[in-house]
Design brief:
Distance between the termini: 60 Å
Keywords: Ligase
Order of helices and strands: HEEHEEEEHEEHEEEHEEHHEEEHHHHH
Low-confidence stretches: none
GO molecular function, one term: ligase activity
Helix content: 25-40%
Number of helices: 12
Family: Belongs to the glutamine synthetase family.
Largest sheet: 10 strands, mixed
InterPro entries: Gln_synt_N, Gln_synt_N_sf, Gln_synth/guanido_kin_cat_dom, Gln_synth_cat_dom
Protein name: glutamine synthetase
Strand content: 15-25%
Radius of gyration: 22 Å
Length: about 450
């Protein structure tokens, strides 16, 4: 276990007084991407976190409804601890919570070994593989989400905020009557998340905020913090921000698009080649091929809920087939038109419910395998991207995707067998619980006539 550097800890605690910080929130990601954490008084921070903060290991596998799912080393092992050690390089004040600072923690087992189920550790594991190739992956996250407000006319009591038709890509009060998006953009910028732009998306109450690209771990940290922060900011306004893939039948889904490229140790971009096909290097083409080859397994991680697969389908602007194309938003992998340092791929597979650490780790793991094995992509998509005669379909449900992940031994090895085992157990339980639950659709469909 990496203990906190005592000098760095001393500097941090001294800075608390200068910045008026009296509480430090230590947070980390569970398997879902939900933030778990603890508030620590600043004047007790050094003695409390010096050897890490203990949490119950099974928090990784607690469902959204509070059920504790038994993963290896969890419930059946007597609910032992994990230890969270703050990464002080991530420490920063929370602009909307005076006196509070936030820090992201790395998770370890009590024996000091890294917790392989930790999503942040899964991503570190894949980044290390790129380092073996002399490469550093660069990532730019794009996340869509809905803001909901209380609406007693809706069955669940919540409806889209500022509901109106046709407010696609507008800014200002027209699509955001209370300026919640503008306020959030400013708050997130002050939080140091390197957000760059925001706009109303296709659906009523649906928005997108873009984050600038950076090295993969930093990009994932910022995306993780972004989701937690946006939910908190919405709660402060009496609303809910949801990254659920498709919250409404009548509205489109929310995507998590990830832009990815890689550079060498000196920062030279490795996806660009003016003499290569389509201006792309062999490394870029192999990365594309790797993502396509492992797409069914990637779906389990990038589309991790039962609801995720209701976002897919023809003419949805979400992918349906395993394909790639040049500046083609109907393809699963889109190659934006920029070249030079901006040469990159955009994976459009993921939905907003995905855990940022895992979605990025999955993409990088598949790309790494393509680069390592020198894979060659199939012909690129031309034109319409929803013709199933042109490419294989993505999994159409979570169970199929989970099976594909289990069967993809190469990707499992990259992400870590212990992590995949825990993730699959968690998701199989989700499928089992859903299979036993009577839905509104079933009652509407059957109760009157049958």
């Amino acid at each position: 276990m990496e203990h906190i550097d005592e000098n760095a800890l001393r500097v941090a605690t001294e800075q608390f007084g200068a910045d008026g910080i009296d509480v430090v929130r230590v947070g980390y990601s569970d398997l879902m991407g939900t933030e778990r954490g603890r508030d620590v008084l600043a004047d007790r921070f050094d003695r409390t976190v010096g050897d890490g903060v203990a949490f119950c290991r099974s928090i990784y596998a607690t469902s959204p409804m509070g059920d504790v799912i038994d993963i290896a080393g969890g419930l059946s092992a007597g609910l032992p601890d994990i230890v969270v050690v703050p990464d002080l390089s991530t420490l920063r004040p929370v602009p909307w919570e005076p006196g509070v600072a936030h820090v992201i923690g790395d998770v370890y087992n009590p024996d000091g070994s890294p917790s392989e189920e930790s999503p942040r550790q899964v991503l570190r594991r894949v980044i290390d593989r790129f380092a073996e190739l002399g490469m550093r992956p660069i990532v730019g996250p794009e996340l869509e989400f809905y803001v909901l407000e209380q609406d007693d006319t809706k069955p669940n009591g919540w409806g889209p905020y500022g509901a109106a038709t046709g407010n696609v890509y507008v800014a200002g009060l027209k699509g955001d009557p209370e300026n919640t998006l503008l306020s959030s953009l400013r708050d997130l910028a002050a939080y140091g998340l390197d957000v760059v732009a925001a706009n109303h998306e296709f659906g009523s109450g649906q928005f997108e905020i873009n984050l600038w690209h950076s090295e993969a771990l930093d990009a994932a940290d910022r995306a993780f913090r972004f989701k937690s922060a946006l939910k908190e900011l919405s709660r402060r306004r009496g609303k809910i921000a949801t990254f659920m893939a498709k919250p409404f039948n009548e509205e489109g889904g929310s995507g998590f698009h990830v832009h990815f490229s890689t550079v060498d140790a000196d920062g030279k971009p490795l996806f660009d080649d003016p003499n290569g096909a389509d201006g792309l290097s062999d490394i870029a083409r192999s990365a594309i091929a790797g993502v396509l080859a492992h797409a069914p397994a990637l779906a389990a991680i990038s589309n991790p809920t039962i609801n995720s697969y209701k976002r897919f389908g023809p003419d949805t602007l979400a992918p349906w087939l395993i394909d790639w194309g040049l500046d083609n938003r109907s393809a699963m992998v889109r190659i934006p038109p920029e070249r030079g340092r901006a040469s990159r791929m955009e994976l459009r597979l993921g939905d907003a419910s995905a855990n940022p650490y895992l979605a990025i780790a999955g993409l990088l793991g598949a790309a790494y395998l393509g680069i390592r094995d020198g894979l060659t992509p199939p012909d690129k998509l031309e034109g319409y991207g929803y013709d199933p005669t042109k490419a294989d379909k993505l999994p159409s449900d979570l169970g199929t995707a989970i099976s594909a992940l289990e069967e993809d031994k190469d990707l499992t090895d990259i992400l870590g067998p212990s992590f995949v085992e825990a993730f699959v157990a968690y998701k199989r339980n989700e499928l089992e619980r859903f299979g036993q639950f009577v839905t509104d659709w079933e009652f509407r469909e059957y109760a009157y006539h049958l």
